[in-house]
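Consider the following assembly input.
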Amino acid sequence: MSEQPTTPVIDIHGITRSYTMGDETLHVLKGIDLQIHPGEFLAIMGPSGSGKSTLMNILGCLDQPSSGEYYLDGADVSKVSERDLAKIRNRKIGFVFQNYNLLKRTTALKQVELPLVYAGVGNRTPRAQAALAAVGLEQRMDHLPTELSGGQQQRVAIARALVTEPSIIMADEATGNLDSRSGQEVLGIFQRLNQERGITIIFITHDPWTARHTRRLVMLRDGKVVADSPIENPLDAATSQRPSEAEELESIFQTTYYGGKKEEYA
Amino acid sequence: MNPVEVFSTALHALLLNKLRSGLTMLGIIIGIAAVVSMVSIGRGIGDYINQQFSDLGATRLQISSQAPTSGFTTRITPLTSATAAALANPVNIPSLALVAPEYNLSSTVRAGGRGIGMNVIGVTPAYTEAYSWQTQPGSAFITQADVENTARVAVLGTSTVKRLFGSESFNPVGLQIDIDDLSFTVVGVMNRRSSALGFDPNNAVLVPISTAQTRLDNARERGGSLRVSLITVLARDKDAVAAASREIRTYLRSAHGITDPANEDFAIYNEAQQLRSLNQISSLLTLFLGVIGAISLVVGGIGILNIMLVSVTERTREIGLRKALGATREAILSQFLIESILLCVIGGGVGILLSYGIVALGNQLAPNFGLSVRLSLAVDTLILATGVSSAIGILFGLYPSNRAARMRPIEALRFE
Ligand SMILES: Nc1ncnc2c1ncn2[C@@H]1O[C@H](COP(=O)(O)OP(=O)(O)OP(=O)(O)O)[C@@H](O)[C@H]1O
Ligand SMILES: [Mg+2]
């Protein structure tokens, strides 16, 4: 898939975001321009505090910029009513948070049904089940968040993000809290969603290995875009072998890590 | 979101937080039950007091001798049988329906060896009507002939029967008793009267007034007339009480030759007046208990408020998440409104049931303490208490949620 000269789904110009704290003003985003086209799989990297999450929250219509223009599918977001913003968050954008943000004491199925409730969908259960199946959790529908591993919770969050069939999914360090194996699985899910369903995916990560599975990398530093380039040969999560961890562990313990198999850490 | 969705979302959220929901409801329940049962009890006791005193008769006046307030006059003209006869004359006192003089003395009453010091009351046949107090069926009372003949007959109260003969159900009619060594024939027993405020009226020995004045005592004045202790009169009706009191005062002043009110040597005691001041006491009691109840209501309200405000942080994040997933402000607010209303309806319902239970329990237990109190549910207070606690619940349920619903989703999600 090569880049098409389509109209960008996300088009931002001179976006800034500053926080006023007392009499000091903290400029977090200092003028960001970015165009993202339908079907792109984009990674945003940058040092901690560079403004990645801040930018993502603005793109996800969870926050508003201090200045600048944001066109979503050609529409000026600053002029969209509160009610229509809710609709955008509900149908157009799926958001995956770094800390999952699941409702406590609520089953996986109910979590995933929640966006459908606000979408006014009547027969929700089959769609929620399908979304959970798409992230490999068909066996965990009735589990509460406390009964799921971190990776499983993040997959519930992904199912929740994709259940309304949004055209964009934004994930803020979706694999950041996961071990490499679960991270790889989650990464695979995003690749499939992108390739099979054509969903635009924006993916914040700290991990260059994860970023190599996307098709475009935007580097942020100090609230500015410092690099933006396509990735030459994206890795496939289904086949890629992370080089480091198992070898590193072996070098620490000399022998196989408490009797397990090498592949477990691959 | 249709109403059914809103409702089920709200219900689901309440069930998710059983402890918080339970505590909020507890605040409402305590608030309602406390204030309603307090006011109900206060009113019940007030009614009881009123009823006790209306039993005594609202048209009744009692006249007795009294030292003048001036303190200078030494001469007190005593009340006599002649005074009673004069009061009974409608030319003197047109507003009166009945005059019942009595002469009281304490004597030793003996029956079958037991001797008991007792108040003996010399009465006329008018006594029964004056106090609306009848003899038991088949019993006689003191007749006009008994009074004229200074007969040695006695009528006993039930407590006296018990004290003299050992049992209240014993029938002493026809037996002899001794009063101060004079032998009397018991001719009747009075009905049992409810005891008012610790004083037992059944502890009575009634004899003809003339017998008491001349045979048990010497009540003869120098002029030859017989002293009486008390003259009880009944006004024609409730509205005539004030006029009767005025007429009696005018008559007695001229009969006793009194010009200065400070030299008045008699007192007219009006039970209706007494009743009014007791009414004030009982409404004061209701007020007092009502204030205690209101304090409970406030405490309950603060409880509700506390729980609602304490859960703000958690709920703000929940609201942020719901907004991030596409909830509109209206959807959030209607969910929280329904939640609050559900809490208030359930809590209020339980509070009402509990108040009802407390009142019913009070009615069950009161007889065990010898009180013939009947409590009835203070419905007006119930409505007020339910309204107030529901208003608090809804207000403080909605206020934080409204604030959260106005925030940007990311602000709400990060709220601390
Ligand atoms: N609500 C806020 N008020 C004040 N400052 C804020 C607020 N949110 C973020 N910041 C500041 O903005 C800067 C960028 O934050 P942001 O969360 O966007 O960083 P990030 O690139 O996502 O970092 P990380 O990789 O650690 O997640 C930080 O210095 C942070 O302190
Ligand atoms: Mg971040």
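The longest helix of chain B spans residues 271-310. Ask yourself how this observation constrains the way the partners meet.
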